[in-house]
Amino acid sequence: MNFLFIIVGLLFAALIAQLAYLQILHGTQLKAEVSRTDSTVETNNVQRGMIFDSTGRVLVGNKTHQAISYTKSVNVLAPQMYRTANKLGQYLKVPTGSLTRRNRADYYLASTSREKRVQANVPGIKNMAQSDAYDKELQYLYAHPAEFKLTRQQKNNAMIYARMSGAYSLSTTYIKETGVTSKELAEVGEHLGEMPGVKVGTSWTRNYPYGSSLKSILGTVSSEKTGLPDSKVNQYLAQGYSRNDSVGQSYLEEQYEPVLRGSKSQTDVEVSGTKIMKEVKRYGGQKGDNLQLTINAGFQKKLQSLVRQAESGAGGVSTGTYAVVMNPNNGAIIGMAGVDRNPSTQKITNNALGAINSSITMGSVVKGAMVSGALMDGVITPTNNTLTDMPITVGGTKKASWFNKNGGQNMAVNASTALEVSSNSYMMQLAMKEAGFKYSEGAALNMNSNIFNIMRGYFNQFGLGVKTGVDLPGETTGIQGSTSSKHLGNALDEAFGNYDAYTTMQVAQYMSTIANGGYRIQPHILSSIRGTNQNGGLGAVKATVTPTVLNHIDMTSAERKLVTEGLYDVVHGTNTWKTGGELDTIKPEISAKTGTAQTFYKGTETVTLSLASYAPSTHPQVVVALAMPNLDYNAEDNNMKLAKSIYQAYWQTVQSTSTLKSNTTSNTTTTTATAGN
Hints:
The radius of gyration is 35 Å and the shape is elongated. The chain contains 23 helices and 22 strands. Pfam families: PBP_dimer, Transpeptidase. InterPro entries: Beta-lactam/transpept (IPR050515), Beta-lactam/transpept-like (IPR012338), PBP_dimer (IPR005311), PBP_dimer_sf (IPR036138), PCN-bd_Tpept (IPR001460). It is found in: Cell membrane.
């Protein structure tokens, strides 16, 4: 008994000594430590900038939602978040479809009692480092899944816990950002005092008032749940983003992310221990700036519909239809539409981006560039450019114009007439002249393979076979055929557009270069960057896109006249074999080049129709380019029917013909000034 009294006495003595140590020797220091406060900054996201069309209509807006959010406090522990999640889960239901095995395990182990039960089954866990011990706990649960099955309510709570634990200290994350019911708002709001960090607030998601036909161009934004893309996470973190921030992840949304993101609000937060003592808003944040595009939303919607209708009636093994409408004087894209078609299933899907990334063998539409190149090369001149259209036979192979396959329609044609009737023979003879090869019927084609480089060099000047520079990611350069000796005969096909493949955007740039007098202008879809006014609409202009001239075509006015007269005669000429007569009903009158290429799709012989045009023929205001690959071999005028519908929609929707005179003067002046730069 005396021994027990001695032991108790010693314990009391030790306790008194420890109290003396804490209160007398280090009392002031420890009291200061408990009372110590830290100041830090809490940030919150702001509305993303919107995207408007050329007339000020909203293409991409922000839809406001009531939301439940959580701001993670400093040094908050898992059991504390676990209790908050369980409490919030009583009033709020969240989707659990993305709940992972790790999420379930983390929630299970956040309960102190359950974690102790698991630890009791892991030998030597007390001697392990904390991270190693937790890994062992997870391994045990994964090996015994029956031990941590969750009820439906627990899964709901586990999803809430996962979102809470994924947040950074003093960062705000959404627990439920859309679909919050009135009942949930009321009940959560009533119990906010019992759930530290939980708030009732507002979230935003993107909406598309003019439909989704342009979504492939506009791009998408990552959700708060997916956060930063893995491929750029370090780059964004270095720029001050949080891992769960929403960012533009494709096309315009990604390309102009720094403009659209805005600047986060900042709140000074004073923390004592794990408790927030004081919050003072330092900066309310700034909504992202807006983009105004060159696209006219009403016309774009009509253009996409017309393209889809044209493809719906194509049949056979047609694989898509694409169209670009742009201002030739400044490169502004007024409309860009496209659809892909699966010939096996007949399914048609919107793909406006096909205009910049689908490479198509266009056919005769490129002959304006071929004639221009021959003029610049000096193999023909404005006063000496007449040749005989006749079948060309080399090395046992005969190639001919569509109207003169057997030589029964041999006739003299000059450069303009060759464009009017779309003479393949004329273009092949130009190629041979450029190669320094003297043609003799039936003789071997002994041209230097450098002829490919010569022709492509001139085509490139107009934008064919090179990137146009359009301000959208993903543009392709097209496809170049082989230039090996065994493909030398394809140089003749190249001359009339039946070898290399180009995009519809390249065809539009090429025709714009002819229409504006020889200036290859970079196409653009962004018009300006603008602020926001008091009503939430377009505010002051902060930056404007100015036309960029990529190169100038070195042709004389007499040389250009030969080409433009030929394009005019394609539609309005008097030759029996003109190819675009169906377009002569379009008012104001247009100049054009039609295109037909003999193609194949999975062994099936097809035809690809294209068209490049501008209007009015004098002082052009608009260019229309389109391509319809792999139509039925007997298809003839699908391209012209579509072009007529597009022009009609343009003059009805975008520009009144009554404004042509004043606009012509303005655009001519703009082009001249730009070229001077």
